[in-house]
Amino acid sequence: MSQERSRDDYKVAWICPLEVEQIAAMEMLDEEHPALPKSSADHNVYSLGSINGHNIVIAGLHQPGNCPAATVVAQMRMTFPNLRFGLLVGIGGGVPVQTDNGMIRLGHVVVSKPAGGHSGALQYDHGKAIDGQFKRTGALAPPPAVLLNAAQALAVQRARLRVDPVQQNVRRIDITSRGLRRFLYPGERNDHLFPPDYIHQQQGAPCAAECDPSKLIPRMSDDDDMFVVVHRGNIASGELVVKDALLRDTLAQQDGLLCFEMEAAGAIADFPCLVVRGISDYCDSHKNDMWHGYAAAVAAAYARQLFFYLPVDEVQRCSSDATGTASPSFILPFKLPGVNSVNYFVARHEELGRLHEELKWTGQRRTVVLHGLGGMGKTQTTIAFAKKHGDDYSAVLWLDARDTTALKQSYQRLAQRIVRETASLAYVQNAIDNEDLDGIVESAKRWLDEPKNNRWLVIYDNYDDVLLDSHITTNQSVRCAAEMAPISGKTSQAEAASSKAYDIRPYLPETDHGAVIITTRSATVKLGQLIRLSKLGDISDSLAIVASTSGRDHFSKDPDAATLARQLDGLPLALSTAGAYLSQVTTTCAEYLRLYEESWLRLQKGSPQLLEYDRALYSTWEVSFRHIQQQSVGAAMLLQFWAYFDSEDLCKEQVEYWLVQRRLLQHADQCIIKVATSAEPETKEWMFDSFGNLYSDQGRLKEAEAMYERALQGKEKALGPDHTSTLDTVDNLGILYYNQGRLKEAEAMYERALQGKEKALGPDHTSTLDTINNLGILYKDQGRIKEAEAMYDRALQGYEKALGPDHTSTLNSVHSLGILYKDQGRPKEAEAMYERALQGYEKALGPDHTSTLNTVNNLGILYSDQGRLKEAEAMYERALQGYEKALGPDHTSTLNSVHSLGILYSNQGRLKEAEGMYERALQGFEKVLHPETLRTYVPALNALENLGRLFEQLGATDRALEHYDRARTGIADITASKARVGSAASRGYWS
């Protein structure tokens, strides 16, 4: 009777991508085992068996490549949780180089082994393009020591034997059987090696028929089918099928490569493997399938022999027990970074008990959806559960799920913790090194999917904008948006909500283990066991919340405390808000109730659409806000302003500089008098310069000019005209004059500063380059294009040398040159500059930074001017989406992009769409600009004129005349007042 085995009994994976490789693998087994049941999520087909007492799982791939290999390994490890390592066995392309065992030929075997600073396998097509060159990034893990030791022991033993055990294993395959004839040794006569530059002459025809035999590279005879030659060293893995001998040799010389294949990088990324490849071709244009069978056979034969040098006890040892104890390499210390928890949590005993019951260990995935209205305490309840039961889990992980950006950033922080605090797998570090946020998310999810990492708890907090089954839960999303928006806001709530809605399921781990909590305001998130948080029913719980947040020890003794608690209707957020207010004042509960009721009535009159729940919350908030307003109008205004920002990204530093500047400004005049009369001579000039910076920052340009001039006079006298401090003040004066439109005076200052800096600091100092760049901008505004180009070129070369090609100062110069070339009618050069700037900005600042978007927009203008309307449309749409996200729908940059799309649609004959864009742009300008500014704002006048032209095309003469008249009036006003209009604005450029 055969032994019954479970999936836990299999410890070694044998992965072979091709059918011919799988057949060879099966022929190497001592015995075959019956199939075992597996999860419906596992799409692999497995063959089970054993060699020398080692239980082995054989799996193929549906197609070759690193990605399919990674998928197969991930699913295999979920089904067979005790797999320790793998053998990646099959065919590969050889590099015909000399090794200790002779020259690599067809039918030989190459085995991965660390050499030349590499791990034995490397991904040759994975990296970054830097300075026009490809730089490989990341590293693959070396084979496990037990396999390296076995390979070395096998090599030693084979060298001493007269009969080759590997060749004997090849003969296990009965080549007389019709289905196995492909494994026959083709013979040396079919081993053709040509020079790297000699290309195969006829596609589909054999070399013997079409290629020139005189071109064959002569080699010593090696027609010995009694011994399989094995070479050990570096194997290259990539997604490309290499059929180019010149490329083969170039890559091989760089890293000492012996072989090329297509699966190792995907498998080894997170699973220790040894790669075994039978050589079936030379990675050149002459490759064919003749050697596939024999190459697969010798690779499988070598892999079989390794099992006779592996200790069974070592391989079969299981590293985790059946109760789900996590491996130490997956344990993260309990932390909740960035999560604000209350000091004293009360109530919710029933809900905490249910959470504990639903998330008990079962060996499978457990998911709870904790839902309830905003302010019910979902986050705090989850925090309390995590603190109470954190020891039950190997890691408690908190992810911010309010939108996809926040969730991806949470995953990024998790990946950084994994690398910092555990013996992390190589794929996590590689993803971080590649700076690809989506790749980092996938790497963190893969870490959660690891078979031995099965005791974690992941909390997805604030998943409120729900998009499941391609259907937005509109009422819930709108309600969530309404709760977070200012009361007087005019933005469409449905629009705001739907723009953030997303499907959370792709962000959940895919494996069937671990515990998940999702907190949400929506009851439609039916992804697990639903637990609803309702209002507090016990008034003693409400009193406890107010008492703890107010810090009033005897709060419950206040005769009106119970009335206040009942009035706030068991809403935890309202109760804690009231408590926070009471902690700052001496107000009694009776007085607070009076303020609360007044606020309730005001809201009832002003916002009758609010539900009772909302009005209770807003009433407590308004009481607190009015108190702040009475204490400090400025603080209240700042709070109103901050209501439009993401609360997670607010920090003290954002206003600290402004506050300091404003406070200093009040004392500046008196300080100047004191400095002028009593300061030490060596510090006086520095102080005047600082006052100039202060006044300039605050827009008081006349005072700034006076300070700079006094500083300059003092420095010239004390330090000399060529001292670097003197030159800094000269440069500051140049900037000031430029901002005032005094270009001649600005030019004189810049030129003086430049001459002095070149002498004192050198021509390549960044301070010198900044002045050069300023001169370029000035020359361009004066129409001195050749001189501007010379300055830009010089600044660019200097920045590249001093700061590198990817520094933002370098990229700014590149972008400025692109604009200049565009103005000169040099579109090819402009496009090259824009594309370089775009790639650099995307890498340095991200795809959604305004500098990136400005370059995208300018590329759209360039494409449009060249008649490349499809490409222009793609650029405009990308710029528009980015501006809407980064700056909002009504920012002038957004509206300029809308207007550009209108022009494009008009040129394409899509007049209705063009009209919509023009109208949107014009309405936006009218909304955000003061009427006086709007009259002479060139982009708005352009929109008016283009609308007039469009109405004329549509035959709407009256409307066309109306828009033409408005545009011409504005132009006349500009001419009459001799207003200085920037050339960039009139063309729609951003610099």
UniProtKB/TrEMBL annotation:
Keyword Metal-binding on entry: no
GO MF: catalytic activity
Start and stop residues of the TPR repeats: 727-760, 769-802, 853-886
Protein name: Nephrocystin-3
GO annotation, biological process: nucleoside metabolic process
PROSITE patterns, alphabetized: TPR
InterPro entries attached to this UniProt entry: NLR-like, Nucleoside_phosphorylase_sf, P-loop_NTPase, TPR-like_helical_dom_sf, TPR_rpt
Pfam families membership: TPR_12, TPR_7
SUPFAM superfamilies, sorted: P-loop containing nucleoside triphosphate hydrolases (SSF52540), Purine and uridine phosphorylases (SSF53167), TPR-like (SSF48452)
Entry annotated with the keyword 4Fe-4S: no
